[in-house]
Design brief:
- The protein is extended and about 70 Å long.
- It starts with a helix and ends with a helix.
- The longest helix is centred in the first third of the chain and has 42 residues, at 9-50.
- It is 75% helix and 0% strand.
- The chain is mainly α and 194 residues long.
Length: 194
Amino acid sequence: MTHLANIDKDYTSWIEELSQWYKHSQIKAATHVNSEMLQFYWSLGKDIVTLHAESRWGEKFFVNLSSDLRAKLPGVKGLSETSIGYAKRFYLVYNEWFTIHPQVGGELQESAIWRIPWRHHKYIIDKCFNEPEKAMFFVRKTLENGWSRNVLLNFMDADSTNGKGCNIFISNKVVSNNNISYFCFRINLRAHGK
């Protein structure tokens, strides 16, 4: 800190406020960028499905699309074959949920799916691809509890090794983030007979 920051409390307080405001702005910007990217992936996945792209353009479709997009957008990340495949699955799993549960008045735009990070979605898709209800359950719980990827993975692992026990626990009890990892660790130990 500068000499001024060491001697003037008003200045020091103002610096602290600016720092907090800047950090908050960074988080808001990152959240907005994430939402836009998720909407891009949703649109890409929807196009792949509605255009019947794989059958229309052949078995190397994902390889070609990835290569062509990266040629048009050099240096842009998130356009690998794997990411494009996840975009299709992202659309399929959540579109199935929205088909089962029609949204009123454009609720899709405010949906919880836009508010969690892409990597969270990838884990959810891997574990819950054929279970849209379960996928949305984990999306909602991630938002409600502010779960990191590791906490989300712990709960999904506990759910898969312990049947419905994790769902019942999450639904009926309030859990602090400090206790989540311990809970999942104990569930996993019990599931493996330890």
